Amino acid sequence: MINTETTPIDLRGLPPFTRNEAADLGRVEYLRFADALASLEPADWGRDTDCDGWTVRDLAGHLCGAVMTATAIRSQIAEQKRVKNRVKQSGENEVDAMTAIQIAKVSALSPGEIVERIRSLAGDATAGRKRPPTPIAKLVKFPVAMNTIDERWSLDYLLGTILTRDAWLHRVADLARAVDDAPVLDAHDQRIVADVAGEWARRHGQAVALLLTGPAGGYYAVDGGGPQLELDAVEFCRIVSRRAEATHRLLETEVPF
């Protein structure tokens, strides 16, 4: 249990991820996701997840397809073109179109092949996410509309923060809940949760004290006042990602994953 008599971490002073830091955390996440998939029984791959319409197989396909795309700038550009064409034809939002393309890309692979593909490409995907020059990656932007989010993301934000958060929450929440398994959490997970909490605080812009429990948790605050919120670290991320119902008005502030 965290001792709240200690000084909380100032969320406004917590810098967001750099792309390199996020990509390095992403490499760890890819390998942990592959290990989690490798531990599944055959029947587990058909289980439903909290992601609407997705089974564990779909979840794994999305992650595998994303890893494959991340390995090279050429693949990233080609996927974005396919996404734009699909959106024009289907009317889907950009995120749904992208994940559908990723799942279809690996539909012919067996579960074992998906695991090995993620493992073998984890390093290349990490390098690929770091490769675009930062000035260009920050200038290239595209629209994103999902749930309460309607904004433009930079390529830098996508290749760094979003791809790591996405893989992480799929593992520790969606996959774990689908197969009724408790993931092992440590300082790696704590760093990702802290970044989510920091962006959450910047988005709502109000004073708050936030106690997140569990191995991935921490004690955070903004401006030393406001409501006192206490909840499990992973559940906090499920709530702000719109996977679970908000238990306080500030938790209605969505953070993209």
Task: Summarize the structure in words.
The chain is 55% helix and 12% strand. It is of the alpha/beta class. It folds into two domains: 9-13 and 188-252, no CATH class; 19-184, dinb family like domain (Four Helix Bundle (Hemerythrin (Met), subunit A)), CATH 1.20.120.450. The strands form two sheets. A four-stranded mixed β-sheet has the order 1-5-4-6. A two-stranded antiparallel sheet has the order 2-3.
What is the domain total for the residues?
A: 2
CATH class of the largest domain: Mainly Alpha
Shape: globular
Spans of at least 5 consecutive residues whose pLDDT stays below 50 are: none
User: Could you name the CATH topology of the largest domain?
Assistant: Four Helix Bundle (Hemerythrin (Met), subunit A)
CATH architecture of the largest domain: Up-down Bundle
Can you count the helices? 9
Q: By CATH's scheme, which homologous superfamily of the largest domain applies? A: dinb family like domain
